[in-house]
């Protein structure tokens, strides 16, 4: 089976893992958050991997870098929402720290990808 270029990106693979983790933790959120924070977190996390995938299909490096910037922005949105979820006691300190470490790792990789895209 053919693999598209985005599927070969380690940062895309990592961002896909983030989506799975977000889905797991939001399953335990209060039912009142189904259309609130839970939904926002899920959509923002999916946006990270989706923008990395979409950017890989663009023709110019500048356009690719733009989608990397959007992916990074969505990642920061996830971080904000994870902080709020933790402060509302929706997640444990351990889950918070694990997700935060994953976000930090992905952010570093997105920044490196963007830098490469702009320098080519």
Automatic annotation (TrEMBL):
Listed transmembrane segments: none
Residues spanning the signal sequence: none
InterPro entries: 23S_rRNA-intervening_sequence (IPR012657), 23S_rRNA_IVS_sf (IPR036583)
Superkingdom, taxonomy of origin: Bacteria
Pfam families noted in UniProt: 23S_rRNA_IVP (PF05635)
NCBIfam families recorded: four helix bundle protein
Protein name: Four helix bundle protein
Source species of the chain: Wenyingzhuangia heitensis
């Amino acid at each position: 089976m053919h693999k598209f270029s985005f599927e070969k990106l380690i940062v895309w693979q990592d961002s896909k893992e983030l989506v799975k983790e977000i889905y797991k933790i939001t399953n335990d959120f209060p039912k009142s958050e189904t259309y609130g924070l839970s939904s926002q977190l899920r959509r923002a996390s999916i946006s990270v991997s989706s923008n990395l995938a979409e950017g890989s299909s663009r023709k110019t490096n500048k356009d690719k870098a733009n989608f990397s910037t959007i992916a990074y922005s969505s990642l920061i949105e996830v971080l904000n929402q994870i902080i709020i979820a933790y402060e509302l006691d929706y997640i444990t300190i351990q889950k918070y720290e694990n997700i935060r470490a994953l976000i930090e790792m992905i952010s570093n990789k997105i920044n490196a990808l963007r830098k490469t895209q702009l320098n080519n």
